[in-house]
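BUG: 3D viewer hangs when loading the predicted structure for this chain

Environment: internal workstation, default settings.
Expected: structure renders.
Actual: progress bar stalls at 90%.

Input used:
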Amino acid sequence: MMLKNVTYLDTISGKYVTGKQIKFQDGVIISITDNKEGDGIDCKGKFVLPGLIDSHIHFFQSAGLYTRPDGLDLRHIKSYENEIKEIRENIPSLFRRYLACGVTGVVDCGGPFWNFEVLDESRRLLSPKVAVAGPLISTVPREKLDIGDPPIIQATSIEHAKELVKECVTRKPKFVKIWFIYREEEFETDSKIIQGTIEEIHRLGFKAAVHATELETAKRAVKFGADILVHSVFNEDVDDEFVELVVKNRVIYIPTLMVRNGYRDVYRTRMKLSEFEQIWGDAKVIASWRDLMVLPENQIPEAYRPLRREYDKTPQNLLDSAYYNLRRLYNAGAIIATGTDAGNVGTLHGPSLHTEMKMMVEAGMTPKDVILATTIRGAQLIGGGGFIGEGASADLIILDSDPTVNINAIDQINSVIIEGKLFKPYELITPTTRESLITSLFVAINDKKMEQILAHFHPRVLVRDFRTREILYSGIDALKNSFEATFTMKPTIKQKVGSMFSFKDLVIVKELLTQENKSITELLSVYKVENHLITELLITNK
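Structure tokens produced before the viewer hung:
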């Protein structure tokens, strides 16, 4: 295969190269030459980049409501065993979702030993390049996540930590991950365990990646020799000493700016998705967040309330220090790689990387440097790639606009090339659309599953008369009463789509109502959809 009239970003020099043609063979770029006459995919007016790399994800988490019972425990509603079963069954689809978003490389920063089975799957299936670590060696336990192959294991001593490291490295991970959670009374003891763990990792010839989100833990981790900090320091502004340590020791810093917002928005039932996330996010995962709106209060554990208070802050309050710290490290010349922590509640696999990139620009990085952080810098973690050149893997994205001018252009994916094979995003995974939400609603209505019906609507939904715009009723309780009355009066009623089309945030539907398989009426309805929830419904008889 060949691309012609190519303008591509050379991530080594940081400059665009124009007027080239690129040939692939057996998944590798075999030549980059000046344009000549001949067949090829015309890239005139397009911008070609190396495929994007998400340097921090977790395969063992779905991003759904039930994926972290150690935070919000809803196992009485959905068992953690079922959650993990569904996650594992969804891995092939997850691979394709990443590719549809232009992500041709992902780094799993710690999970169960079955992560290495996922790595094997990635080599057999259509998939991004995958790097994995084994279980997180932790200063704290996470018993609720242990169903036989735990993703997080507490090291109770230096000797225990060293044994865990030895067990992990037998699988040949890209690095070994440490979970350094601050505990004031145990801080010095925990620090000694972390130091011994990092020393053992290095002795065995591997790199150490550390989760350390407080300045105290992050500073200790870097002093002990951490190679990678997989999160921003979130709790306070970094000081000169920390900045100097990170830059001098060439520690790779992965900010993961958006992950806290994901938890906050889901737990506050105020999800905020970009258009790109709405289109390319997993619809089933997004639907799971809505369950929190309709679950009876007695089914939500009391432990949820302090979680909700913790995240009941403005986005600015959550990110002030993280933005400042990224800006300071970036301006000081630190190595920055882009990662999302995808899989955590509210952080979608695939499209979240685009949101993270935009947040990094908001924090003060230039669009071009964010792209470098998401390509050539991420390649340092995945073990190769991230550039366009002879001998490089043919993993590319073709964009309709220049993302170095406006980072929002990263959403305008024309095509994705993985190992020399070209795909349109919609050929890889079916986009999530507003129409699919309405179709899902009708299925729930016809099954008379009230909780599922209400989960499609915003709690403060408005129902209006189509002609007068008069509010007929508002709120989820009034909507529930309306559906219950209809089901009581017409128990055999069914609802289906006659025709449907969208305009901006509106979905216009001709609804066909039948009873006992006989047509009884038609309705023209307009649904206003925001963040994958119906916020307004206009109804009229035809």
